Amino acid sequence: MKITLLLAAAVTASFFASTILDVDAERFGFSGENFLRHPEVLVTSIFLHGNLEHLLSNILVLVFAGIAVEGELGRGKMLAIFFLGAFAGDLLSLIFYPFNSVSIGASGGIFALLGAGMLVRPLDISIYPLAVPVPLAFLGILYAFYNAYGFLTDSTSNISYMAHFGGLALGLVWGLAEKGLRKGAKIILISAAIMLLLPALFFVLKRGFV
């Protein structure tokens, strides 16, 4: 928990510092061109965010997923998943977006934590983004569907959906390595089945009371 909160504090402090100092996101954000000239953008881009809404949406998921992963796997593995997920997300995005398209934010690393967290601590509760208690396993599946929908329907968006998928994929692979393929797959399938059944159950109950 301690390292997760320190990481969240570092990302938050970096946002305000970069805003005050007017740091050039075009220079320190990630793109194929920037990476060839300045490889350090793999790291600097993580600590830049476009606005306060972008920051808060990332920080909230970082805290919930990071605490779960850190509590189960330890601080070293949590940090490794976060940074490797961010790197994987950036590198995957090169396949789908223009070589000079700049991206910023910690989303890839956060999705990696979410992917690992939904397998190693599937029943840990998050209240974001629905303002109701949601197990991490459900939250991971919801975000996966949300990103797939966004990628397929929102071609003009400035959101790097594929960077999210890159991070999520790395987190899932790590989680499967920790839990075992059979147990990890069972968690995903059972969670997906429950999520599909809940709307049907709600509909049936609603019809019964009408």
Topology, pairings included?
Layout: H1 2-20, H2 25-28, H3 32-37, H4 41-44, H5 52-73, H6 75-96, H7 107-120, E1 125-126, E2 134-135, H8 136-153, H9 161-179, H10 181-209
Antiparallel strand pairs: 1-2
Helix pairs in contact: 1-5, 5-6, 5-7, 6-7, 6-9, 7-8, 7-9, 8-9, 9-10
Distance between the terminal alpha carbons, to the nearest Å? 47 Å
Helical fraction equals over 70%
Approximate shape = globular
Radius of gyration equals 18 Å
Number of distinct beta strands: 2
> What is the name of the CATH architecture?
Up-down Bundle
Give me the CATH superfamily: Rhomboid-like
Ranges where pLDDT stays below 50 over 5 or more residues in a row are none
SSE ordering: HHHHHHHEEHHH
